[in-house]
User: What shape does this take?
Amino acid sequence: MKKILNGLILILLITLASCVDDLKVGDAFLEKAPSVDVDKDVVFNDANYARAFLWNAYTSLYYGRPLKWGEKQNRMNMGAVDALTDCFTSGLSWDGVSSLYYSGQFNATSDYSAAVYSYSNGEEQWTGIRKAWLFIENIGQTPNIDDKEKERLKGEAKMIIACHYADMFRNYGGLPLVTKAFDPNDDFKLPRATARGTMEFIADLCDQAYAVLPWALQSNEQEQWAGRFTAAAALGLKIRVLLFGASPLFNDNEPYYPEEASTPSVAEQHAWFGGKDMSLWDDVVDACDLFMTRNQQEGKPWDLVRNASNPRQAYQDAYYRRANGELLIDTRARATVSWYWDGDCYYLQSYGSYGAMTPTLEYVNLFPYADGTPFDASFWDRQSKDNYIAEDPFANRDPRLYENCLVNNAEFGLDHVAEMWIGGREGPANDLASDGAAFTGFAIYKYILDKEHMAGKQDQWPYLRLPEIYLSYAEALNEVGRTSDAYQYVNYVRSRVNLSGLNPGLTQEEMRQEILDERAREFGAEEVRYYDMIRWKQAKDFRKILHGLRIRRGDNNTYSYEKFSVKKRFIQDGENGTVFFTPKWYLSPFPFVEMNKGYLTQNPGW
Assistant: This one.
């Protein structure tokens, strides 16, 4: 799709520029006053130009990794959202995670290129939304496209709008709802809708798209059109948004920041639903029921990628390979990687060499043994720097461990196993290391792989994968009291990597924790854990001290393991038990420049 997109846009630019004097295409012409809006008429009076305009709007979609210096592509100042969770930490002292979040300095006046998400600068969401509405409003006049295709294309445009709003909803709550393409004479100062109204707005867009899009692409379309929206993608996004809305962040008996309950954003329900409504969990169940039923009726074109002889490879293909039958939504900012030090693919160096997303011991401990037996985290408390043992605590674990994290003695594509011990080829240089790619005794493997064979690798962001639907279904079933029905969907995800099923007889609370842990294992470095911690208001996980390992090599393939505390984040508890975390961190603040315009309410605590 990227190749076709670039070709069509190039044709569009060359052809129109040669035919019309001073014609502007893209953002430039979107800013023109209606009195000189001839360019819009030219674009939508030609079928190829109109389609190319929509493909260009696709480029505004969220891509979760930093690529190069620039507003949108400089994600978190070369940092990573997942480094704000308990699964990863940043060893890059100058990224936005360390400089603003770990220090506690982030606020409404901060540079939003270093933020989790930028409301008004850099994300391109407002440009994408306007392009999509322009397309919806004008495609009707385009010749040589039949009505059925026009409806499909409008459905895709609505999904572009829905995706952008879904991203903002999870970061801000209630939002100004743009329902048309504004022109320069319109009043841009829309007030915030309620959080629930915003959720329903997104869900309605997804419903409209679902009604007109094909359930899946035909097999002969996959390579050419991978990434194009489908009805399954629309329903999948709706499930994600409904699940977020049903969760306790917004859907509870009290607002998430009770001490700030009198603020306008709470009182006007911009950052809270106003009470607890358990029927919202039923809505998630209903949407998941529909997904499963429709997928079965269509011959199950969407299913988990499997490889019976190599489950680890199946998991890698699931998050890494396009057109795999599992990626419901994936986005692309470039086609392929040229090599590891590609200057336009900076996340490789940022994550892989500078440590912007370094796994924690807590994350590694989440992965059970290959037979499904949980790993006993107290093992590390029985070790010391002078106790060298032959036992390998990283051997025979859940295959997803080795795809998310580079651990000692793991095979990873080079002529040696990973040497994560102090002084090893992949490990920290010395026992005083407090930053860099392996200072915790682990390094990220996901997306980075072996570093040395990156040339020609596909580059895409796994925005929404099918396992999220299964695990969301399980979670919703558990919350409505159908815990016994939740097992099959968790176990189905686990079966891909040959893990045994969950132990029977779990309580609702135990099942909830199992599901959240399973989501962390399945979606490492895919920005799922961060929003799970937020929607369940997991202050304890934001506050806890995280750890790494100092691994030392002895004689005869023996190693010692010394557990140590990772450098403190501002929101972690103090050594004397002082609590620094406040619930304000669950949502982002609207930028001061937007607040100063007087049309928004600020989120609690900011």
Remarks:
- The mean pLDDT is 92.
- Residues 147-172 form the longest helix (26 residues).
- The two ends are 41 Å apart (CA to CA).
